[in-house]
Write a structure and sequence with these properties.
It contains 17 helices and 19 strands. By secondary structure, it is an alpha+beta fold. The structure holds adenosine-5'-diphosphate. Adenosine-5'-diphosphate (ADP) binds next to helix 3, strand 7 and helix 10. This is Flavocytochrome c.
């Protein structure tokens, strides 16, 4: 394709994106997922302070491409955009290359929120939390296998990340809880809507305000070296034009490999046939490119299966639905697990049911508190009944049993004791406000915990544990932080905390050259 044709294509795509509101949003905690068909009108039009102009996003035209930048950032999810903003803040000229025609990656699909401890918003709301508790609960969730240095850095910088976002117009002051946590630390947008689209819009707006170039349909194929030093990338623009672009540092923020079934089944043959909530661009490119220049990986077989995925559309139903009170029931109308257990345990419980699927049940109160449910409704996932009996009929479960399950649950909420399954969170409100609702779900591939090995400076390490000069990585592409199981809400925190760190450390590296 000729340059002019490529530029025209980029322009057309940009205009399409402006119309589409620049996102796809379904949700998942960094609840990953995809597609413009998932766009939430509510998020588009919601008047959230500080980000109202973000939907006018357009991307940098191809004819503005330069041969050299201070820092090249590969991938435009939350990690890449945070890195770009911090590098710019340090006075450098970063660029972002995104292979898809839209920004935001799986970050767009995140729904539940961003975990953080000792935040100003928690304090305002009298939520008593501590970084130590956040550390311990994340470590327990990861079965003690998390990289402890990374985890310590993560919790200690979580409140700072919430404040940084607030300072750039991205306010996450509505706090809920996710599975495996004992304290409310999952920060969401003020109106309780899914975090991903809100975050992406806000970050894009900041990139635009600061004049940071962002090229879409810019597929990075290789990280290049000269004289043993990282010196840039090879990029394929608009599937046609290959170029070498040089830089003093490269930050890899390409996300995970949750949409690459070959990579998944190579390490986890048992997951063949599972649906995935991941956007199609999550193909593990960054991992492969980093391995080629000497990097190494950790925990590659630790793949998170999310328990509540709408199977026909592979669409993640965020954990906030349970966090705000929903139950999981079997086709017999019975509860079968502590719904607020960690994702691996809830998934295992669903897989013991004969149909390996279950039904989320909630009332109008949950629906009001979790804005994302409006999106699920628009997508046709939500079944409604004016009474429990009517709902039971709609979802084909025994009405008397469903009524008994809800009555037992409502007394458990009242007495603050779930004698059946020992649930202790997501019990602030009972399920007694008609109408009642149901969403049918089953497990789906959601998140790849493994990835490249980095240190807390986000430097990519080689097999000997030495930093590869000029090469940084952050976000889902990196492994170690979550160990064997990621807690919902921790990946959005990871991309902001380590994304910022990558921008700062790459800028320091460049300045020291
Ligand atoms: P994170 O949550 O770690 O920020 P995301 O999945 O949100 O990760 O974003 C990663 C982004 O990187 C996605 O938009 C994806 O399309 C993009 N990406 C993946 N591989 C490449 C590549 N080879 N070149 C450019 N962009 C890439």
């Amino acid at each position: 394709m000729k340059k002019t044709a490529a530029a025209a294509l980029t322009l057309i795509l940009s205009v399409m994106l402006v119309i589409a509101g620049c996102g796809n949003g379904d949700g998942n905690s960094k609840g990953n997922n995809k597609g413009n068909e998932n766009l939430s009108k509510d998020n588009e039009t919601s008047k959230v302070e500080g980000v109202s102009g973000a939907s006018e996003a357009s991307y940098t035209p191809y004819d503005q491409l330069k041969d050299k930048y201070d820092i090249i950032i590969i991938g435009s999810g939350g990690a890449g955009m945070s890195a770009a903003l911090e590098a710019k803040e340090k006075g450098l000229n970063p660029v972002i290359f995104e292979k898809m025609p839209v920004v935001g990656g799986n970050t767009n699909k995140s729904s539940s929120g961003m975990n953080a401890s000792e935040t100003k918003f928690q304090k305002e709301q009298n939520i008593k939390d501590s970084n130590d508790l956040f550390y311990e609960e994340s470590l327990k969730g990861g079965h003690g296998t998390n990289n402890k240095e990374m985890l310590r850095f993560f919790v200690d910088n979580s409140a700072g990340a919430i404040e940084w976002l607030d300072s750039i117009g991205i306010r996450l002051n509505n706090i809920t809880i996710t599975g495996g946590m004992n304290e409310k630390r999952t920060h969401r947008p003020e109106d309780g809507s899914a975090v991903g689209q809100y975050l992406v819009k806000g970050l894009v707006k900041n990139l635009q305000d600061k004049g940071i170039p962002l090229f879409v349909s810019a597929d990075v194929k290789e990280i290049t070296e000269q004289d043993g030093k990282i010196n840039g990338v090879k990029v394929l623009f608009n599937q046609a034009d290959e170029k070498n672009i040089t830089s003093n540092a490269v930050i890899v923020t390409t996300g995970g490999f949750g949409a690459n079934m070959d990579m998944i089944t190579e390490v986890r043959p048992d997951l063949a046939g599972y649906v995935t909530t991941n956007q199609i661009g999550s193909t593990g490119d960054g991992i492969k490119m980093i391995e080629k220049v000497g990097g190494t990986t950790v925990d590659m077989d630790q793949i998170q299966v999310h328990p509540t995925v709408q199977q026909e559309k592979s669409y993640l139903i965020g954990e906030a639905v349970r966090g705000e009170g929903a139950l999981l029931i079997s086709s017999e109308g019975k509860r079968f697990t502590n719904e607020m257990n960690t994702r691996d345990k809830v998934t295992a419980a669903i897989n013991t049911l004969p149909e390996k699927a279950a039904i989320l049940i909630f009332d109008s109160g949950v629906k009001t508190r979790v804005k994302a449910i409006e999106q699920y409704e628009k997508m046709g996932f939500v079944i409604q009944g004016d009474t429990i009996e009517a709902l039971a009929k709609e979802i084909n479960v025994p009405a008397a049993q469903l009524q008994t399950s809800l009555d037992t649950w409502n007394s458990a909420v009242k007495n603050k004791k779930d004698a059946e399954f020992g649930r202790t969170t997501g019990m602030d409100n009972d399920l007694s406000g008609a109408p009642y609702y149901a969403i049918k779900i089953g497990p789906g591939i959601h998140y790849t915990m493994g990835g490249v090995v980095i240190n807390t400076n986000t430097e990519v390490l080689n097999k000997e544990g030495t930093a590869i000069p000029g090469l940084f990585a952050a976000g889902e592409v990196a492994g170690g932080l979550h160990g064997q199981n990621r807690i919902g809400g921790n990946s959005v925190a990871e991309i902001i905390i380590f994304g910022r760190q990558a921008g700062i450390k790459a800028a320091e590296f460049v300045a020291s050259q």
